[in-house]
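Posting this for the archive.
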Amino acid sequence: MISVAIDGPVGAGKSTVARECAKRLGFIYADTGALYRAIGLYAVRKGVESGAEDHAEKVSALLSEITVEIKLENGTQKVFLCGEDVSVEIRQPKISMEASAVSAIPAVRDFLLELQRNIAKENDVLMDGRDIGTVVLPSADVKIFITASPEIRARRRFEELVNKGVETDFDQVLADLNRRDWQDSHRAVAPLKMADDAVLLDTSELDFEQSVQAVIDLVREKV
């Protein structure tokens, strides 16, 4: 099986680019960030939000109640939390921040690690997240770190939310993105960083099609 690991900060376009690349390459696409968002959503629903001193302890205690699945329906990835399709709800800005918080909890990472690795064992996979090339799939055949300037990433995220009908403000999106960057890169467990053997791809000046083609070219060049 061929595994492609794509990492990068929030709003870099990893998910949309990775999804299209997987389709063209005939690979399974696995959006691991969606798994952490699902955990964050469950915690919020249970009244456990980041910021509390016992946040990690309370979230860890909830894991035994949770099932998370990734399914393909008509070629589209769907995320199911305890049997419920939460694919849209987990994309809310608030849940994005909660996902960052729960992803720093060792018990949560252990809970999801085996699920992610099993996907790669059983399929040609293109997997994106924050620590795929460094932790989840350290032996991936191809590792790519996708990034862009904070302003470009915030604009992309803002437009994505608007297109989904989510009421938001650009300045708030940018502020949330900068805060999320800091959280992801400074957490004690599996912080966001580029793997030593990854290829850096800055998409600030690339449109969607150019970004997709750049990733496909890198994959074909290496495998």
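Strands lie at 3-7, 28-31, 68-73, 76-81, 84-85, 125-129, 142-147, 199-202. The chain has a mean pLDDT of 92.
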